[in-house]
Amino acid sequence: MKFLAEKGKGILLCLGLALPAAFLGSLFPVVGGPVFAILGGMALASFLKERAVFDAGIKYTSKKILQYAVVLLGFGMNLKVVMKTGRQSLPIILCTIATSLVISYVLHRIMHISGKISTLVGVGSSICGGSAIAATAPVIDADEEEVARAISIIFLFNILAALLFPMLGKALGFSATSGETFGIFAGTAVNDTSSVTAAASTWDSMYHLGTQTLDKAVTVKLTRTLAIIPITLVLAFMRARKAETENGDKVSLKQVFPFFILFFIGASLITTVATAAGVPVEVFQPLKTLSKFFIVMAMGAIGLNTDVVKLVKTGGRPLFMGLACWIGITAVTLGMQHVMGLW
């Protein structure tokens, strides 16, 4: 009862934002529910009076429910299937992740962009967009404005990728009889699942390939999602070391360790073992859907705590960083596929 009294109103407010945002996201999947939720939260924040009664629930949603979303994301991961397809795409995935992180770090140093923003943009661009940002934000203790800025940048290049990549694939002469080449390209070069799906589906429609491209792209994308595990663990270790260096105090890794990632791994193992034992994969679909909805709720909470004016004023340099990461990932993906003889 105490929990509901303190946090109930704020959680309900975020739920009220999430429901229409999720519906709009289903109508316009290239934009996605999280972006509608952030925009709705920012719009509502300027009209919200007596914020104090909502603050605790909003904070809980932006932090804890975001972590629950990442845990539930694990139920969409069949590790056996991912590993089987991942062998072919793993070299490309590793190179694109390294490229994005190096670009974000270099621009962070040269352009004096916030370290947390740089990390979120680099990780979000290279791994899996909003899901990677959701997993990384609690580990580096990013605030709502930093998360909102990173999500907004990722959203922009999601839209561009979904619109431009099918035309780019056609111009480059990707195979029109098989979805493999474009599927790997979309799965490694596009950062968010919604845009991966949109780009791959467009290619299937262009050449009447059924779901060949979509199946390949989504499986490659799931392989990328696994990179959340080592990235968050390394960031937790770096945060602990940095705290020790700056403050001179001994910081236990346990204090900053992302324990929710262990539950994410556990959920993935449950799905893998269950499907191997004959359980239909559709059984886990409601949990995957709930995961996506929780992310929408959390983004609504982040929108409510975002200063729109400040976001616009400080968005130029991070936006350039997002562009540089996007171009770098695209170039490396194409280069690796060409070297590997995939096109």
Features:
single chain; 343 residues; mainly alpha; globular
What can you tell me about this protein's structure?
This protein is mainly α and 343 residues long. It is built from 16 helices and no strands. The chain has helices spanning 2-27, 33-45, 52-73, 79-111, 115-126, 130-140, 144-172, 180-189, 193-207, 212-225, 228-247, 253-256, 259-276, 285-304, 308-313, 316-339. The longest helix is centred in the N-terminal third of the chain and has 33 residues, at 79-111. The termini are far apart.
Helix content: over 70%
Strand content: under 5%
Radius of gyration: 20 Å
Mean pLDDT: 87
Q: So what's the overall shape?
A: globular
Order of helices and strands: HHHHHHHHHHHHHHHH
Give the termini distance in whole angstroms.
60 Å
- Tell me the total number of β-strands: 0
**Which structural class is indicated by helix and strand composition?**
mainly alpha
DSSP helical segment count = 16
Give the low-confidence spans.
none
Largest sheet: none
Please give a quick description of this structure.
By secondary structure, this protein is mostly helical. The protein is built from 16 helices and no strands.
Write the topology of this structure:
Blueprint: H1 2-27, H2 33-45, H3 52-73, H4 79-111, H5 115-126, H6 130-140, H7 144-172, H8 180-189, H9 193-207, H10 212-225, H11 228-247, H12 253-256, H13 259-276, H14 285-304, H15 308-313, H16 316-339
